[in-house]
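Lab intake sheet, docking and co-folding queue.

SAMPLE TYPE: protein with bound small molecule
LIGAND NAME: guanosine-5'-triphosphate
LIGAND FORMAT: SMILES
REQUESTED OUTPUT: full 3D complex as structure tokens
PRIORITY: normal
SUBMITTED BY: R.K., bench team

The fields below were copied directly from the construct record.
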Amino acid sequence: MMVGPDGVGKTTLLATMYYELSRVDNDSPFTLMATADTHQDLQAAYEKLSTIITQPTFTPTGPLLKGTAGIIERQFQLLFNRNPELDFIFCDIAGGIIRAEETNQDVIDFKTRLNQATVIINVIDGSALVEGDPTLANSKNEPQSIYELLSPLLQPDKQPHLLLFVITKCEAWLKNVESQQQLEHAFETQYELMINLLAEMTNTVAVLIPVKTLGCVEFTHIGYQNQVKEMIFVRKPNLPFQPNNTDQPLRYALAFALQQHNQNRSKWNKFMRWLWNENTAFQHALVQFAEERQKNFKIYGNASLIEVTK
Ligand SMILES: Nc1nc2c(ncn2[C@@H]2O[C@H](COP(=O)(O)OP(=O)(O)OP(=O)(O)O)[C@@H](O)[C@H]2O)c(=O)[nH]1
Ligand SMILES: [Mg+2]
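RESULT FIELD (auto-filled):
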């Protein structure tokens, strides 16, 4: 489940994540497949991002993609040695749902699905996190609403969760170690409640992943658009459209989901797999897949939940 207010970059992340992962993993026994609709929509979103943005004169004055309407299910299947292994759905939401009334039908549907989610991706606007004044930063990312939404789910009696804090729009702070620390510090200050909660949780692990979904658009200053304070970005003419690290959230998500799936197989299924010697190959492939995760991200909560061992 993707969570985060409107415009933080949920759909952009999903499109670039899918594109990156389907491009890089040719020799893995795991293959990521999307249903026809999901493939077409995400491919179209990716192409839209890449073509608009490569025009040298482009100035990002508004969102590149149309805002998402309601809740959209993006369906995928993971194959293992060409056989279906795991079906999964990414729910992309209209960020407005985070602010809507409890009685709204989309909010009710959203909460039902959130309750079933194994992996939760909170997308965070990095520019507002670092440069926004408290009001602006709050209105862009709503850390308090996210805390209220997620804290009931992360309790000890609930299923294990992986929570990914994915920071977008942070190209300007990924250039050196000091500015990366500035980003991390801003996150830890504004998400303090969440981090304190995670410190006590044994069945949740969280990873902080800054990504470049565009790579060539950088924050410059805070200005006014229609008399509303806005983060202003410019297109860097010397940089190409180049998503970076966007496969990482998906790798963390899939490794976690596969591990949970493998542990939750029925006794009979486990026995049959043992009999046919299917376990070893699977576990080996899972370890290999998990090793492609970068290890330099900050982890909160119970780190042993994301360990994948032979
Ligand atoms: N500079 C920069 N801009 C980004 C990045 N990710 C997204 N954006 C910009 O933010 C805009 C909004 O992104 P979306 O992906 O549509 O946001 P969303 O969270 O899906 O929004 P809703 O569907 O309205 O909830 C995009 O069109 C881009 O212009 C990023 O990593 N860097
Ligand atoms: Mg969207």
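REVIEWER NOTE: The two ends are 29 Å apart (CA to CA).
SIGN-OFF: pending second check by T.M.
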